[in-house]
Amino acid sequence: MMEKNDLSGRKAILIGIDSDDHVCVDESLEELENLCETLDIEVLDWVVQKRKKTDPRYYLGKGKIEKLKNLKELMKADLIVADGELNPIQARNIEDITGAKVLDRTQIILEIFAHHATSEEGKIQVEMAQLEYKLPRIVGKGEELSRLGGGIGTRGPGEQLLEQERRRIKDRISVLRKKLEEIKVERDVQRKRRLKSGIPHVSIAGYTNAGKSTLLKVLTDTEVLIADKLFATLEPTTRRLKLPNGRVILISDTVGFIRKLPHSIVAAFHATLEEIAFSDLILVLVDASDVHMENKLKACYDVLREIKADNIKKMLVFNKIDMCTRDRIEKLSLEYSDAVFISALKKEGLNTLMKRLERELFSGEEKRKFIIPISKVGIVYSYRENLEIIDEKYNSDIVEMILKGKKEVLDTVESRVKGP
Asked: Is 414 exposed, middle or buried (0-12, 13-18, 19+ CB in 10 A)?
């Protein structure tokens, strides 16, 4: 079963490394603090140490951990959260010295996913990610478990327990992987049916909390879960959207991206993220008001590359312009001249966005003139979602139409109106 812990009300101190690796430690810790707040964890302070790499035994230096213990007691904190993945030795040593519960960034993200997963698929994906994270770390318990008994050249009960636990986790991962494969097969069938329909598919991708769900809601005028929390959306939501030219497209909200997105999550959510790679167009949504926007945009493109969606046509959309100064918008407009600027919340710039969608999705289609018996006009209108009527003139018993659409759709219409 998926593990879900209640960390609400915990008081935490965050720890991080300033290693001069081009990642701003303050920016990363600020994001970690936001992740903690999503779980209602109160962050009391940060502790940062400048060093080239993490200490293999203590993450920070041992002396810094001793000082962390004093700070933890002074501030009455009961949780230490590291801005990176801890190995079992590091986690145990920090816990032994400070007396506080110790978690790392990946565990916090997994915990958020566990709280936000509602569908069967989401719960399976989260449980699998948790187990993939846990499996290599139970090896670190070997030393402790071996103390339970066993002599030289023999396997003690501790080691036997360790092997049993490892086998249990591997068996469970195997079961979950089969379930996800079954879901993937079903998703493939739905995708083939969608592709056969000829209706274009657009995915809204972007950093977590960029406003993807809000945009989907205002564009399609449908109910979508919206929450001002990181990773509020885990399961993709797809809606139909009618564009100004009368054409219909499918548009999907997707799970948010983040820097240092744990590989276990990318692997477990591959079937979900894969939907993006089968889109006709990806809307890369960015919070224009975010001072760390450039780094987050880079993280988005990194994830798209990891899920092999980097070759899909993309449209850059800056959201939340209502929270920006005019100078900020002008600067971004100069730097990203091909981007669209909107406020999903205030419904600003949506007409421009819709027109751009039309242009990007349908600009390569052809126009064709039809002379249709008036009795067969209904055939044309039955394909209304797949083509655009540019012009139509009624003359007694015939209709002259100029239609725009994909060649295969126009060929089908032509065949049907000429048939018996």
From this structure: middle
- Which residues in 194-205 are b (16+ Cβ under 10 Å) and which e? eeeeeebbbbbb
Angle at 280 between CA 274 and CA 284, to 5 degrees: 75
pTM of structure: 0.78
At residue 204, the 3 state secondary structure works out as strand
* Start-to-end CA span in the chain (Å): 60
Antiparallel, parallel or unpaired: β 398-405 and 366-373: antiparallel
Contact predicate 191/238, CB 8 Å: no
Residues facing residue 205 across a β-bridge = 284
The pair of three-digit structure tokens given for residue 53, joined into one six-digit string? 């790499």
Round to whole Å and give the CA distance between 125 and 337. Answer: 38
CB distance 385 to 248 below 8 Å: yes
For the chain, the average pLDDT equals 86
pLDDT at res. 54: 92
For residue 375, what is the DSSP state? G
As a whole number of angstroms, the distance between CA 206 and CA 352 comes to 20
Of 305, 272, 247, nearest to 191 by C-alpha is: 272
CB 345 within 8 A of CB 322: yes
Residues 105, 35: Cα–Cα separation, whole Å: 9
Helix (H) or strand (E) holding 358: helix 350-362
Q: Tokens 């609400």 appear where?
A: 8
Place of tokens 């940062």: 48
Separation CA 262–CA 273 (nearest Å) = 14
Best CA proximity match to 34, nearest among 22, 46, 21: 46
Structure tokens at 170: 């591997």
Q: pLDDT tens, 332-373?
A: 999 999 999 999 999 999 999 999 999 999 888 889 999 999
